[in-house]
Amino acid sequence: MAQPGRAVTVSDVQQLVRRKDEIEAQIKACYELLEDQKGVGMNEPLVDVEGFPRADIDLYQVRTARHNIICLQNDHKALMKEVEEALHQLHAREKEKQAKDEAEALAEARSQEQGQPRPFARVNEVTPGSPASLSGLQVDDEIVEFGSVNAHNFQNLQNIATVVQHSEGRPLSVTVIRGGKKVHVGLTPKRWAGKGLLG
């Protein structure tokens, strides 16, 4: 049986059930022995009407069988209690494990949500041949970082315009979400044939 302080395993329970089956088989064998002794059960008198020991049965065998049945039934009762406790522990542990797994899955989902930065703008147009187009920016890219601007400090598009003016001719790190994935784009604002420094 499981030692105190050690978690109960399925094989512990199976071992207990095997022991229970063995005890039940022994009890059955003892009852069969009583049955062979002229059907003497657990309560029939072992003396005749005159108070003498019955001569038609093996008294020693009957008394031993009765004694064994009582002992085995006590063992059986104790064992059933052990089986019940072991099953309770097993189920409680299974429930605990399930709750833990659910909590971990939830925590993982939350951390992924937090790990995915929040976009603050969406690209709705990219002019062909412009610095934005050459950098690989695409329509529907969701911008999560534009140089030093991100969802936490973004107020309006003027923030981006300021970063662009201060970064003319220098590469800017731009992070976008495209199709659910994070994509880094190197964008260098510069003068070109069209309007603005990006296009």
- Overall geometric form: rod-shaped
Query: Average pLDDT, to the nearest integer?
Result: 85
Q: What percentage of residues falls in helices of 4 or more residues?
A: 40-55%
Q: Low-confidence parts, pLDDT < 50 over ≥5 residues?
A: none
Give the total of beta strands: 5
Q: What's the number of helices?
A: 4
Q: Briefly note the structural class of the backbone.
A: alpha+beta
Biggest sheet character: 5 strands, antiparallel
- C-alpha-based Rg, rounded: 42 Å
Overall tally of domains: 2
Element pattern in H and E: HHEHEEHEE
Distance between the termini: 76 Å
> How much β-strand is present in the residues?
5-15%
Biased composition (Basic and acidic residues): 93-103
Protein name: 26S proteasome non-ATPase regulatory subunit 9
Region (Disordered): 93-123
Family: Belongs to the proteasome subunit p27 family.
